[in-house]
Specification:
The structure holds 2 protein chains of 2 kinds.
Chain A: H1 3-35, H2 42-49, H3 66-97, H4 108-129, H5 136-154, H6 168-199, H7 206-209, H8 213-247, H9 255-274, H10 282-305, H11 312-315
Helix pairs in contact in A: 1-3, 1-5, 3-4, 4-5, 4-6, 6-8, 6-10, 8-9, 9-10
Chain B: H1 26-37, H2 40-54, H3 56-59, H4 67-76, H5 80-86, H6 96-125, E1 140-146, H7 150-163, E2 167-171, E3 176-181, H8 184-209, E4 211-218, E5 222-224, E6 232-235, E7 248-258, E8 268-278, E9 286-291, E10 296-298, E11 301-317, E12 323-328, E13 332-333, E14 340-346, E15 354-361, E16 364-367, E17 370-373, E18 382-390, E19 410-412, E20 422-426, E21 430-432, E22 439-455, H9 459-478, E23 482-489, E24 500-508, H10 515-529
Antiparallel strand pairs in B: 1-24, 2-3, 3-23, 4-6, 4-22, 5-7, 7-8, 8-9, 10-11, 11-12, 11-22, 13-14, 14-15, 15-18, 16-17, 18-19, 18-20, 21-22, 23-24
Helix pairs in contact in B: 2-6, 6-8, 7-10, 8-9
Classes of the chains: A mainly alpha, B alpha+beta.
The complex binds protoporphyrin IX containing FE.
Chain lengths: 323, 538
């Protein structure tokens, strides 16, 4: 296949997986409406006991239509799996559309496409381990929205990587950064839920279907505990190795590096907060949200505030990761 | 942050009689301060402060990162500059306040881990603690009845727990098994924090004893490694120029591959500089193809190719007809197509000094009367510059001034019709300036390479440090320290066949929250050996 054909395939796959994610979202919405019931008072006692395992589902509720709920829930999951598979095709095709073939993260569009893919993949992988069914509508909704933003505002035609980006370290560096970003994002979503739930523990609707505070805290912690070492590997090991090869010094304090470091420090603070009396729970969850904010700022905001750097080849590149 | 009271990290000691509460001796105050500094809460605050303190450096140009940009910013913001200068905002990462935060963090870290090393050492060799009196009060607790006698339940329980990697202590008298695992979690945590120290030491070594310098070398000419030859040079605070290795190199050729068609048309890739070098004046000459991402290592110094551009060969003759300036002039690329900006300062020109400022188009094309640059390859090299007469200043040798023309003491040269006089030249052409000021000719195009040269002592130490930190962190985050107790007692229901009640309870010390799963697995394994009383027999 020619490069143009690959690019067209990639675009079609993006459209297809977008549609599938959207259908999955619809299925989940139907599921939630079928589940829309009065939560029983038991839920409050549940949270008190503090003995609920991660695997324990949401508090007991009377399900209006259990059959329809189960069916649509399963449908949503199947659609999400298909969407993620096609999402993968879109990424691979994007890489093959470049000449020479390359990894699909040359610009903001591709980075966003990869990021959302890993959000969805990480979610599916931890779906059973962390019993994440309740998180489905949020994740699928998030992926669909961000993907739409990417297609509408960030789309850029395929172009070759600049020389400095042409390094195996870049592949390792970026793939780990994207995976960590995806897991941090999921962790951030769960932490946000934690805060909502902590504010109105008796709330009905979606929040009633979300597990109790302790479970939310543990799920958020486990996502962060996975993401943190991966992020460390990405920004404090492979990033510097690559920077050293390309720019002669492994740490340059350039804005991207500074913000990756800030993110790292904030999440280190999150982990400390969880072990500090008075910072457990709410404040730790706020730190997790600050962490996501620093990630996003590094990805988007810094391009507008940046004091850009001298890094010759890497800097003037149109297709650099930094966008 | 309302509850950041300093006193809640440690329990307050009861005041001695005869003294007002709150009165402290110097020693006590010092001890108090030390405990505060090394508390988890302080570490947390310092970490957050460090993150916050790093922010300004990403928004305000930093001298150590991009000096040219810093100077430009400073000329644009004359009011803010002195204030920022006072606050050390142009060198955030070496500023007093940034250093203060990380040094405090460092002290806090040392004060935190050193005492814990001893605690850990003792804990490491401790037996699992005896079972609490009321196992059923632990949050994670189960029990069941079995027909097997108490004396044979305990060995089975011990075996099951040992199989699962627990350290086990059987107390036949009390009828309990105590078990603990995950001793290495704390080791991981300590390793991580020690490794942070290692990283900081390695980083500091690079910062203190290393150097980083850049030089623009016109292809065809050479460089030898001494201070005077650098365009910019950032030494570590304890750097000694005697340590510089005595190497030299010449760039013989520079090849670029231009993308001719398809995507990315007009862009360059595969930059290769053919280098001839000597490690020292006595050593034999060698060759190396210097490429991006493939530095040349000479001794402990590394040489990197980090940029390239064009150097049009320009000759300026003055009003007397003498050559006032001649040679390849380095133009800095403004965009990916290598539209480049440069400056000529003919300070030797007489009677009037001359300055030129303008653009170099590698592949010039006029479209609808507008000049455009088609691509980065020099297929139709063209110069387009404006001329200034007057005092252009003496080149004082500071790196950025080469690329900036100070026009304050000059006047723009104009054509008879009053329009700015343009020097538009293609290779081989020349032009005479109005008012008998002289002439300018464009003789050819050369290329230059930007070469970065650096020496980074401690870089392997730093790398080893981060890798150890990662290993320690993995241990600390994923090793699950747990305590499990099994107790046997009289059965809940007396009856024929009923023998023993088995209680299993545990404590999770990792915050991972998966203890119930673990307890369920332990119970299942135990029931395989010590079966639960079945419905019929009870
Ligand atoms: C440069 C400063 C520091 C950094 C970058 C840092 C980073 C971290 C990170 C990333 C973790 C989570 C991974 C792990 O558990 O090993 C952690 C945990 C921990 N840190 Fe630090 N830390 C620093 C200073 C300190 C200080 C000064 C203390 C003592 C007060 C401390 C005490 C702890 C403890 C007790 C844990 C375990 C928390 C838990 O049980 O989950 N750290 N630290």
């Amino acid at each position: 296949m020619s490069d143009t054909q690959w690019e067209a395939l990639s675009n079609q796959a993006v459209a297809a997986c977008g549609a599938l994610y959207f259908l999955a979202l619809l299925a989940y919405l139907v599921q939630w409406s079928a589940l829309r019931t009065v939560p029983q008072a038991a839920s409050a006692a549940h949270a008190e006991a503090g003995s609920v395992a991660v695997a324990t589902g949401p508090a007991k509720t009377v399900v209006a239509d259990p059959h329809r709920a189960a069916l649509t829930g399963r449908l949503g999951l199947v659609l999400t799996i298909f969407a993620t598979a096609i999402h993968a095709v879109a990424l691979v095709a994007r890489g093959l559309a470049a000449d020479p073939d390359r990894v699909p993260w040359g610009n903001m569009y591709e980075f966003t496409l990869s990021g959302t893919f890993f959000v969805s993949l990480t979610f599916l992988i931890s779906y059973r381990r962390l019993a994440l069914e309740w998180l489905s509508p949020l994740v699928v909704g998030f992926v669909v929205t961000v993907q739409m933003v990417a297609v509408i505002w960030l789309y850029a035609p395929v172009s070759p990587l600049t020389e400095a980006l042409n390094s195996p370290w870049l592949v390792i560096h970026v793939v780990s950064a994207v995976i960590a970003t995806a897991a941090f994002t999921l962790g951030g979503i769960v932490s946000a839920l934690y805060l909502f739930k902590a504010r109105s523990p008796e709330a009905g609707g979606y929040l009633a279907r979300v597990p109790d505070l302790r479970t939310l805290d543990v799920v958020a912690y486990r996502l962060h505990a996975f993401a943190f070492p991966v992020w460390t590997f990405a920004v404090l090991i492979t990033g510097p190795i690559w920077a050293h090869q390309a720019w002669s010094s492994y740490w340059n304090w350039d804005p991207k590096e500074v913000w990756a470091f800030i993110t790292w420090v904030v999440y280190a603070a999150y982990l400390h907060a969880r072990a500090t009396a008075g910072w457990k729970g709410r404040k730790a969850a706020y730190l997790a949200l600050i962490g996501v904010a620093t990630l996003l700022f590094n990805f988007i905001g810094i391009n507008y505030f940046s004091t850009s750097t001298q890094h010759g080849y890497a800097n003037s590149a149109p297709s650099q990761v930094d966008g | 942050m309302a509850d950041l009271r300093l006193d809640d990290a440690t329990p307050e000691e009861a005041p001695e009689p005869g003294r007002r509460p709150g009165e402290l001796t110097v020693l006590e105050a010092l001890r108090w301060a030390w405990r505060q500094l090394t508390s988890m809460r302080t570490a947390l605050i310092l970490l957050l402060l460090l993150a916050l303190a790093a922010v300004p450096g990403s928004v305000i140009p930093q001298r150590g990162v991009d000096s040219l940009k810093t100077v430009r910013w400073q000329t644009q913001h004359p009011d803010l500059t002195p204030i920022y200068e006072k606050l050390q905002l142009f060198s955030v990462y070496t500023s007093v306040w940034f250093s203060a935060i990380y040094i405090l963090l460092l002290i806090s870290l040392i004060g935190c881990i050193v005492p814990r090393l001893a605690v850990y050492w003792r804990a490491m060799r401790k037996q699992p603690p005896p079972a609490p009196r009321h196992l059923d009060r632990l949050p994670d607790h189960t029990s069941y009845d079995t027909t097997v006698g108490a004396s044979s339940v305990l060995p089975s329980a011990a075996a099951v727990l040992r199989d699962r990697g627990y350290r086990v202590l059987v107390d036949d008298e009390a009828g309990t098994v105590s078990a603990e695992r995950g001793y290495l979690r704390e080791a991981g945590n300590l390793l991580f924090h020690v490794a942070v120290l290692i990283v900081l030491v390695g980083f500091a070594m690079g910062g203190l004893f290393g150097y980083k310098g850049g030089v623009i070398v016109v292809v065809g000419s050479g460089f030898s490694n001494n201070l005077t030859q650098y365009d910019d040079f950032v030494p570590g605070s304890l750097f000694n120029p005697d340590w510089m290795e005595d190497f030299s190199f010449t760039i013989d050729r520079f090849d670029v591959e231009w993308i001719e068609s398809g995507r990315g048309k007009g862009l360059a890739r595969k930059f290769v500089s053919a280098l001839r070098y000597r490690e020292s004046p006595e050593s034999p000459e060698r060759t190396y193809d210097l490429r991006v991402n493939h530095p040349l290592t000479i001794g402990r110094t590394e040489v990197f190719l980090i940029g390239h551009g064009y150097a049009p060969v320009i000759t300026v003759r003055d009003g007397n007809g003498d050559i006032a300036y001649s040679g390849p002039t380095i133009f800095l690329p403004e965009d990916l197509n290598f539209l480049s900006f440069g400056v000529v300062k003919a300070s030797a020109a007489a009677p009037t000094q001359l300055g030129l400022e303008g653009f170099f188009y590698p592949t010039y094309l006029k479209v609808d009367g507008n000049p455009i640059n088609v691509m980065g390859d020099d297929r139709n090299p063209t110069l387009s510059m404006l001329v200034y007469a007057g005092d252009v200043g003496l080149d004082d040798g500071s790196p950025q001034s080469v690329f900036v023309l100070d026009k304050s003491e000059t006047e723009q040269v104009r054509s008879p019709d009053g329009k700015p006089f343009r020097v538009d030249l293609q290779v081989g052409q020349g032009i005479t300036l109005p008012d008998r000021l002289g002439s300018v000719s464009f003789e050819g195009v050369e290329t230059w390479n930007k070469v970065q040269i650096s020496r980074t002592p401690g870089k392997w130490l730093t790398l080893a440090g981060v890798v150890l930190a990662l290993v320690g962190m993995l241990g600390s985050l994923f090793i699950r320290p747990r305590r499990v107790w099994v107790r046997v007692g009289p059965p809940t229901e007396q009856g024929p066949g009923a023998g023993t009640m088995v209680e299993v309870a545990g404590l999770d010390r990792s915050g991972n929250g998966d203890l119930p799963t673990e307890l369920a697995a332990i119970e299942a394994a135990l029931q395989a050996q010590v079966p639960r009383v079945s419905e019929e027999s009870s």
